[in-house]
Structure formats: C-alpha cells, structure tokens
Amino acid sequence: DLQICQHRAPTCCTKKMEESYQAAVRRERTQSIQALNFEMNYMIVGHSTAFQEAFESLLRFAGNRTSSLFETAYRPMAKEAAEPVKELFTDISLYILGAETTVESAVLRFFDSLFPLVYSRLINPGITDLSEDYTECLRLTRQDINPFGRYSKNMVTELSKSLWASRMLSQALSLGTEVINTTEHAALTKECSKALVKMQYCPHCQGLTLIRPCVGYCLNVMRGCLASVSELDAQWREYISTLEYLTNEMAASHDLEIALMGIRNSINEAILHAQLNGPQLSATVDKVCGQPKQQGVNLSSANIVPVKEATETQAFTMALASLNNKRREFISYMKRSRTFYASIAERLCDGDLVMRDSSTCWNGEDVV
C-alpha cells in the first residue's frame, strides 16, 4: 500500500512511515529556508535599527542646535519656542518612519506656531494680551501675509529632498523583512513533499540509510519545489538596485545631515526677515486681528537651560560616521545577495544533503 516509495524488492516501510517522512521533509525544508533567511533577515533588521538610531541621534542634535538658536539669539521667546521646535522634529521623525504626513505640513505647522511668538516678543515686545483667540488669529494670518518670506518654502524644499530618501529607505528595509518572512512560510505542495520523500527517505526503505541523493537530482527536485520562491529573483534584484540608489541619494546631493543642520539657519533667516518687515506686518495684523493691549514689561527668560554644544557636536560626529559606515557595509552585503532567490535551490542542495565526493548516489529509483 505504499504511495511514494514503491519498489520491486521487499521493503521495511509502511504507509504510516511515508506519512511521517512527509511531515519530516516539510519540517526540514522550513528549517533549511529559515537558516538561509536568518543571516539576511539579521542584516536587514540590524541595519534598519542602526539607521533608525543614527537618524534619531541626528534629529536630536539638530533639534538641540535649533533650540540653542532661541536661547542665544532670541531669549525673550526661547521658553515658549521650545514646544514648537520639539513638535517639528517629532513630525520629521514620524515622516522618516513612514507616517501619513508630509514635510510641508510639519514645517508650515511650525511656522504657524512661531509667528505669534515672533510678533509678540520681537516685533511688538510690549504685547501682553496673547489670548487664545488672538494667538489663533495670528496663526491664520501667517498663511495669508507670509511674514517669513521665501525662507519657509525653501526649508520645505530642502528637507523634502533629503528626508524623502531616508523615508523610502526606512520603508524599503521594512519591505525586505516582510518578503523574507513570507518566503520562510511558503507552503510546500503535496507533489513537492512526495518528491522530497522520494529523494531523501525512499532509499531508507531499502535499508540504504547512508546513500544520499545525486546532485543533479536534488537540484531538479528543489527547483520544482521552490519555483514560486525563485520567481522573486527579478524583483529581488530590482529591490537591491533600489536600496543602492536610495543609500547613494542619502549620501549625495540630498544629504540628510546638511539639511537637518540647515534648519537652524533657515529659521534664523526667517525670523530676521519678519523683523525687517515688522512695521508692514503690524499694520496688516492690526487690520485683521485688531490691536492688542500694550504695556512696557521686561520679559523673563527664566528656566532656559543652555545646550552643551561641545558634547553634542562630538555625539553628532559619531552618529554621522556610524550612519555612513552602516550605509557602506549594508549596501556591500546586499549587493552580494543579488542572487539570493535565484540560487536558493543550489544552496539547499549544498552540504550534507547530497553525495559530493563519491560516484555512488540515489537517483530516485535506484543507486547509481
């Protein structure tokens, strides 16, 4: 009653043993593919984490550097500007991670929050009536009168270019992990299970426990079993090319570090532009929002903690070096993995599974 290991000679196998063999080959094949995938998965997940840590380190440094601008040049508004600055860098971080947001909305939201502070602390430093309604009116007016000139738009353009590549790379790494995890659990068909049993275990039914499959035979069986997985080859090669392109983009003209470092300067230029146009802005705001209460007061700048520039610069340099090294190391490894899915059958037939240095092997029917 054997279904797979039928043979003219007497056999020590039963139908139940064949079923056990089928379960064994499915388990062994899953483990073999998991072992092949492990290194690749480890590299992608490891680099994804390392990239993210480096991004966070760069964002933290750029955020502190931006905060220090207010603490040194615009002390009257430093305390209140802390929250908008924090929100801006949180939004940038979420964008890189793939959140449904845009660089433009993050930057413009920041300038919306900044304008009431610039207006009441720098352009008209005597204003005391900053009610919610008046603040909201200033925020909405910012969109119409464009107090920061071209600088807010320039900041959007510069950041969009560099952050796009970082966002895409972050998403691409997640996609790579997903693809590998999916192929790990690719179900073996019944025909494949039977072919694997015939290749690996049918010799045992004849008492030939030391005879292993011939190399060519193993390759034919494995290629048949993994046809759906090896079909990923073209897309996988394209995926590696995309990773290469994105890492080059990050390192070249759309340099993430330069863009993040430029945030401080862009904000400074924007504030200076608003101050230079203070009288015109005041006239427009008075028409739209009304005249606020004025009173000569000495605005406090208490609770401002100076940023430790030297320590932060050192941390930034290390994060930057780490990011650049990770880029090079990662793309070098991934380029070597271009043929991962094309050569999966060869890799599974490598090692102890087949008979290498011998003229005697199993061809599916007999010892040859």
UniProtKB/TrEMBL annotation:
It comes from the Eukaryota. Its main location: membrane. PROSITE patterns: GLYPICAN. It is a lipid-anchor; GPI-anchor. Pfam families: Glypican (PF01153). GO terms for biological process: cell migration; positive regulation of canonical Wnt signaling pathway; regulation of protein localization to membrane. Keywords: Cell membrane, Glycoprotein, GPI-anchor, Heparan sulfate, Lipoprotein, Membrane, Proteoglycan, Signal. One of its GO terms (cellular component) is side of membrane. It is found in: Cell membrane. Cell surface proteoglycan. Belongs to the glypican family. This is GPC5 protein. It comes from Podargus strigoides (Tawny frogmouth).
